Amino acid sequence: MAYRHEIKLLLSQAEYTAFSPLLRGIMPADPNTGPAGEYFIRSLYFDDAAQTSYFEKLAGVSDRKKYRLRIYNLEDGVIKLECKEKRGDRIKKRSASVTRECADRLCKGDFSLLSGSEDPLCKEVFAISRTRGLYPSAVVDYDREAYLHPVSNVRLTFDKALHAGIAGSDIFDQDLPTVPIFADGSVIFEVKYDDILPKHLQKIIANAHGQRLALSKFTMCRDRLRAFRPKIDHH
After folding, report:
1. Which of 6, 30, 9 is nearest to 144 (CA)?
2. CATH level 3 topology of 4-234
3. The whole model's pTM is what?
4. Residue 179 · residue 164 · CB < 8 Å
């Protein structure tokens, strides 16, 4: 899979309310969208003993990777182990499907079931778990409203109600305690595309008067957790 462009903006609730109808009128919604016009995403991010993912993001390292386990709508029908790679201003995502049993083990920091997999990503994560000490670092929750455009594989998303898990790492726990990241209801707007963003979308996106966002959901949630887990950087 080739690297894609990614743009992130932080929108206020008012900016989101004014801007989102412009997309609804011209772009089809993600087919995974439910009756409410969105779907729920929960991710468990892993980091190593040196906190590489966290500190490389804070330092602005150009080439870096993050590993995570992801589910949708708190269901186990689709469970993905993913690696999000960053190279300059471009991103690439690799993924592998895992079983519920494997996911339950990963939530506990047990990577042993990946050892027998033939999937390259599973092999990679298992190797890193042995050499660098991967462990469950942060649970990240949000509601996603998504739109698609076939030209250049454009994907526009609004990620709302961003929350960080404050106790435990069981992503299937519907009662997992979480806290909000944005008390004012701010929304993260992301634009992803392959090569060229169509001009008519460029004009519409220019109406999204938000601020460019440098931090990731993972780092924002990790920062928020410090109030509840003060020793988080001393795993």
Report:
1. 30
2. mRNA Triphosphatase Cet1; Chain A (3.20.100)
3. 0.93
4. yes
Q: 69 exposed, middle or buried (CB, 10 Å; 0-12, 13-18, 19+)?
A: buried
Q: Who's near 137: CB < 8 A, 6+ residues apart?
A: 45, 46, 47, 53, 54, 218, 222, 235
CA-wise closest residue to 157 among 147, 167, 149: 147
d(CA 122, CA 111): 9
pLDDT at position 111 is 98
The CA-to-CA distance between both ends of the chain, in Å, stands at 34
Question: What value does the mean pLDDT take over residues 46-72?
Answer: 94
Given a cut of 70, is residue 118 above it in pLDDT?
A: yes
Q: Which of 30, 8, 6 is nearest to 186 (CA)?
A: 8
Rounded Cα distance, 16 and 36, in Å: 16
